Sequence to fold (87 residues):
Amino acid sequence: MERLDAMEARDVTARVAHALPARHRAGGGATFTLGQTHEQLAEELWTVREVVVRSLRELRRRGVIASAGRGRYRVTDARALDTAAGA
Fold:
């Protein structure tokens, strides 16, 4: 129940940002993948694929993450990622 309440309190970009550090650590800290499709991440975050894609685009636009090609990402500003995640 607490997880649901926490999710409802954040906008989708914050939820996406909150999901990225674990994937970043799992990727060894350099580049990382989402480890699932945009659709699966959307289901996990209780939203739709299009909104996840928009949120990732927004995080890239703000310089928080960068595309590293072929479905890979790189965290370019860890502090901004924490801020975006509401940490």
